[in-house]
């Protein structure tokens, strides 16, 4: 399997390579591009492949220089049969500088966000080449200059909080553009720094704890509420000192009844004698 490739802008592609991605097994077969733009690979037959251009040497980071070539681009979809194939000539489309800022749901810039960029065929740039600076703008890991060169339909994802990262946006690039995307869950990623509008670092909130009960709340739980003056007056009148209350006699309501008639012992003995007299009367009267 052999072919050649050139850049639409005329930029040399000797620091780039092409991938043949098996559409069924997702196995990749890589081929370096030589100084004349040629590349070749031995591929299993009777298999379909996506052909993708990467602006990088195998094993290196993506190219950081802005040279009019996109960092990644779809070239073709082919099927390899038993016979050797000559694919012909491919052209890598022009890449346009795309300025992307990543913010949280409050609009605060996010630093150190790991990002990947995917083509329509599903090939991506990987986790090491692109991140964000203190202002939240996408930069190459080896450069402080904001921006990335893209072309055509691209999907922007974080890498790799979940299996495929969080989808931030899908865009179509055919000219220079700027955009802002929102990362909803920056707390799930290690190393992401949140900057507020003044540029200060926003610390993560402390662990939330239930505050202890206030003194007034604790007091209401431990003790009864104080009585009002009216309640105190009513209570004192019903349960207070009764030394000045009127003493009632046993046989009368007067206070001048003879003491002997109110003595408990005299009353007990008197009652017993009256009971005995009643029994004797019944016995005599029954004869």
TrEMBL record:
Chain intervals with Polar residues compositional bias: 213-222
Region Disordered, residue ranges: 190-257
SUPFAM superfamilies registered for this protein in UniProt: Invasin/intimin cell-adhesion fragments
InterPro entries per record: Ig-like_fold (IPR013783), Invasin/intimin_cell_adhesion (IPR008964)
Biased composition (Low complexity): 226-239
Listed name of the protein: PGF-CTERM sorting domain-containing protein
Species of provenance: Haloarcula argentinensis
Origin organism lineage: Archaea, Methanobacteriati, Methanobacteriota, Stenosarchaea group, Halobacteria
């Amino acid at each position: 399997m052999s072919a050649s490739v050139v850049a639409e802008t005329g930029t040399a592609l000797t620091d780039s390579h092409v991938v043949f991605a098996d559409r069924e097994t997702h196995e990749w077969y890589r081929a370096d591009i030589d100084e004349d733009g040629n590349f070749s690979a031995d591929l299993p037959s009777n298999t379909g492949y996506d052909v993708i251009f990467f602006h990088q040497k195998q094993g290196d980071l993506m190219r950081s220089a802005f040279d009019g070539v996109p960092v990644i681009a779809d070239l073709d979809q082919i099927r390899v049969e038993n016979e050797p194939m000559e694919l012909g000539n491919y052209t890598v489309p022009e890449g346009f500088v795309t300025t992307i800022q990543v913010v949280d749901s409050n609009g605060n810039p996010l630093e150190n966000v790991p990002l990947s960029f995917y083509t329509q065929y599903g090939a991506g740039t990987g986790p090491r080449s692109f991140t964000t600076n203190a202002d939240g703008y996408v930069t190459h890991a080896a450069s402080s200059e904001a921006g990335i060169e893209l072309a055509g339909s691209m999907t922007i994802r974080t890498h790799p909080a979940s299996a495929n990262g969080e989808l931030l946006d899908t865009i179509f690039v055919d000219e220079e553009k700027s955009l802002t995307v929102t990362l909803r869950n920056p707390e799930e990623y290690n190393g992401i720094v949140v900057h507020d509008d003044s540029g200060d670092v926003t610390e993560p909130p402390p662990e939330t704890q239930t505050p202890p009960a206030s003194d007034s709340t604790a007091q209401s739980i431990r003790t009864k509420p104080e009585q009002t003056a009216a309640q105190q007056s009513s209570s004192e009148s019903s349960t207070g000192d009764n030394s000045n209350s009127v003493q009632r006699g046993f046989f009368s309501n007067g206070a001048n009844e003879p003491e002997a008639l109110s003595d408990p012992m005299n009353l007990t003995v008197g009652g017993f004698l009256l009971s005995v007299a009643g029994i004797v009367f019944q016995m005599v009267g029954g004869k």
